[in-house]
Specification:
By secondary structure, the chain is α+β, with helices and mostly antiparallel strands. The protein has 7 helices and 13 strands. It has a single domain (2-14, 53-229), classed as Beta Barrel (OB fold (Dihydrolipoamide Acetyltransferase, E2P)). Helices cover 22% and strands 35% of the residues. The strands form 2 sheets. It has a 7-stranded mixed beta sheet with strand order 1-10-3-4-13-12-11. Strands 2-5-8-9-7-6 form a 6-stranded mixed beta sheet. The longest helix has 11 residues, at 27-37. It is globular.
């Protein structure tokens, strides 16, 4: 069963406040900032204006269970993904990258925004568009098409950002279009798909068979590991 994401979020579209939500950086945020901005990252954040939350347009969010004013990072992203394989039902946010269908678990989605303009980082890999201050959180923006080696759709390929929670920080997935919210029984998902998918398989958790489509489920934990450690 699928329905529009806006309908799914219709009872929880309160936009989180713009005030700084952090009481200091998380361990993952500090590691990321030190990697790209050096030990004096706080001075670099001030110099680039990243100490002030960016103005963004929220499309949908926050997800049920998400809390941008409290602790937004559920423990054990890897454990969560392992648990998905035993789940009786899955709820997924669907989206499109390069004309291909993908999805992420709704529990890991903080919100969906548009119009994000990241600040570029020194020596960042091509898939990392940059960083932004999203409601007081350090948020790297990932060009998902570049990471998955999926040909882009032109200038609108990064129109939306799906903000996910993983490993003590936020990750913004830049995508071309938001599709639908899918609810499916767990037995319709095929896991362990590395040999079937090829390029980008390490960033996928499974395949959802929906009507005449195969929807690739993104592994947020694998993306987090890539962004933090590559």
């Amino acid at each position: 069963m699928s329905k529009k994401l806006e309908h799914y979020f219709k009872d929880s579209v309160v936009v989180p406040g713009e005030k700084d939500a952090r009481d200091g950086f998380t361990e993952s945020e500090r590691a990321f900032l030190e990697k790209y901005l050096g030990m004096e990252y706080e001075s670099a954040l001030d110099a680039t204006g990243l100490s002030v939350p960016a103005k963004v347009e929220t499309v949908s969010g926050p997800a049920p269970g998400g809390d941008s004013t409290g602790e937004p990072f559920p423990p054990g992203t890897a454990r969560f993904e392992a648990g998905m394989r035993q789940a009786a039902d899955l709820q997924l946010v669907g989206f499109v990258v390069g004309g291909q269908d993908y999805a992420v678990p709704i529990e890991q989605v903080q919100e969906v925004i548009r119009g994000a303009t990241p600040t570029k980082l020194p020596a960042a890999p091509s898939y990392l568009a940059g960083i932004m201050n999203l409601r007081g959180r350090v948020t790297p923006l990932v060009r998902l098409g570049a990471l998955l080696d999926v040909p882009g759709d032109g200038p609108d390929e990064d129109r939306f950002v799906i903000v996910c929670r993983a490993g003590g920080m936020h990750l913004g997935l830049m995508v071309g279009a938001i599709a639908a919210m899918h609810r499916a029984s767990g037995d319709r998902v095929e896991w362990g798909i590395e040999t079937q998918v090829g390029v980008g398989a390490r960033y996928l958790a499974g395949l959802l068979k929906h009507e005449d489509k195969l929807i690739k489920i993104i592994s947020i934990d694998s993306l987090f590991q890539k962004v933090l450690k590559s």
